[in-house]
Write a structure and sequence with these properties.
Number of domains: 1
CATH topology: Immunoglobulin-like
CATH architecture: Sandwich
CATH class: Mainly Beta
Distance between the termini: 27 Å
CATH superfamily: ApaG domain
Order of helices and strands: EEEEEEEEE
Largest sheet: 5 strands, antiparallel
Radius of gyration: 16 Å
């Protein structure tokens, strides 16, 4: 991972890699609006099929304000992952400060929902690499 804000973790054979990026052309710092994109790659490194059911995000801005986001699937999908398969998506987060963090988990299932488990999404950092006053 080249991005200093990235994260990568493995839980029960499911690897989650997140690469965030500041989107200056969609941000308006003078209005305290900072848009960040984050690309997520979920890879099934285990030996059994897995399905992503839902997501849970904890988003914290530079002031320590926390927002919790829960919902089904990711970007409209509940992907099935056979062993060795990956699913990649990009989503966005808007903060009212120039930096913050995100972390959370995916709720996943195996064996036709007989086994439900949580997959950790390690903390990653959202920040503007160029100082606001530059």
């Amino acid at each position: 991972m080249n991005n200093p804000g990235s994260s990568e973790t493995v839980t029960q054979g499911i690897r989650v890699k997140v690469e965030p990026e500041y989107v200056p052309e969609q941000s308006t710092p003078e209005q305290e609006k900072y848009l960040f994109a984050y690309k997520v790659t979920i890879t099934n490194e285990g030996k059994r099929w897995a399905k992503l059911l839902s997501r849970h995000w904890e988003i914290i801005n530079a002031d320590g304000d926390e927002e919790i986001v829960d919902g089904p699937g990711v970007v409209g999908y509940t992907p099935d992952l056979d062993p060795g398969e990956s699913f990649e998506y990009t989503s966005f987060c808007t903060l009212d400060t120039c930096w913050g963090t995100m972390q959370g988990y995916y709720r996943m299932s195996r064996d036709n929902d007989e086994e439900i488990f949580l997959v950790n999404i390690a903390r990653f950092y959202l920040f503007n690499p160029v100082p606001v006053n530059a």
